[in-house]
């Protein structure tokens, strides 16, 4: 038995995964579809769209790979 390392399949060796919660955008546009605008309020600036930073990745767009804990490889005995 010997401790070996191999590249993590989940992240391809980068140790990071695209955040699945925000789709890799780092956040969400919020409120753009929530207003009760009608077309005759065109003179009102559309300032209801608020950028919400993704709480999962903190806006970094990636998450630490769960499988390798960000190392990019996994250890195994063989
Ligand atoms: Zn995210
Ligand atoms: Zn990984």
What does this structure look like?
The chain has one domain. The strands form three sheets. A two-stranded antiparallel sheet has the order 1-6. Strands 2-5 form a two-stranded antiparallel ribbon. Helices cover 0% and strands 31% of the residues. The radius of gyration is 21 Å and the shape is rod-shaped. By secondary structure, the protein is mainly beta. The protein has no helices and six strands. It binds zinc ion (ZN) (2 copies).
List the helices and strands and how they pair.
Layout: E1 3-7, E2 16-18, E3 27-30, E4 50-53, E5 62-64, E6 73-77
Antiparallel strand pairs: 1-6, 2-5, 3-4
Bound molecules: zinc ion (ZN) (2 copies).
Entry keywords:
single chain, 78 residues, mainly beta, two-stranded antiparallel sheet, two-stranded antiparallel ribbon, 0% helix, rod-shaped, binds zinc ion
Largest pleated sheet? 2 strands, antiparallel
Helix content: under 10%
Spans where pLDDT lies below 50 across 5 or more residues: 34-38
Could you say which structural class the secondary elements and strand pairing correspond to?
Answer: mainly beta
Q: Count the strands? A: 6
Mean pLDDT: 85
Helical run tally: 0
Shape, principal axes of CA atoms: rod-shaped
From N to C, what is the helix and strand string? EEEEEE
Strand order in space, largest sheet? 1-6
Q: Which ions, cofactors or small ligands are bound in this entry?
A: zinc ion
How many independent structural domains? 1
């Amino acid at each position: 038995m010997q401790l070996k390392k191999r590249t993590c399949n989940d992240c391809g060796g980068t140790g990071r995964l695209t955040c699945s919660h925000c789709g890799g955008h780092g956040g969400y546009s919020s409120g753009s579809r929530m207003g009760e605008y009608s077309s005759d309020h065109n003179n009102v600036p559309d300032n209801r769209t608020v950028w919400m930073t993704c709480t999962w990745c903190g806006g970094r767009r990636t998450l630490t790979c769960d499988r390798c804990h960000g190392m990019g490889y996994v250890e195994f005995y063989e």
